[in-house]
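For the sake of transparency, this paper describes our internal protein records without simplification. The tokens are whole numbers drawn from a learned vocabulary of local backbone shapes. One such record is reproduced below, unchanged from the form in which we store it.

. . .
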Amino acid sequence: MRFQGRVYRAHNPQWSWTPLSGEGARCHGGRFNRRGIPALYTSLNPWTAIREAVPLGRRLQPLTLCAYEVDTEPVFNAQNEYQRAALGVSDADLSCPCWEAEMLEGAVPSSQALADRLIAAGHTGLLVRSFAAGAGVDDINLVLWKWGVSRPSLVVLIDDERRLARGSQLT
């Protein structure tokens, strides 16, 4: 599927000067990317982005909230039962509640294995519900593994006032 629309990302201010880098995810790994693979974790709603960045029960720390315009394809839509069935994607592959512990033990969590399969199949990203604590069925994320300055993987930071000018351009 093709995804066109606005997405949001709340991230650690240490990456605020490089809001298009995916470097934090590359360094640490994430639910849908192994260490060493950059990923841009975004949400379709700014509140979902904040919920993703501030795990329930932790104190709120400073965040940088950014908005992006995206036009990319193909995106695997995990909300679509037909697409999931075609690739044999289970709820457990998506939610993978112990992904971080498994990754730290040296295992490959099922969510990262799914991402590997999707990347190998040429998908630029994954549209998937949020699994952050307190998230509802309408809290949706777009995880990107490929993005750039042109189609088919266009991502443009919205920064009309050039507040993040030092890192707002892709190289």
Q: What stands out?
A: The chain is about 25% helix and 25% strand. The helical segments are 23-28, 46-53, 81-87, 91-95, 99-104, 110-120. The chain has one domain: 3-156.
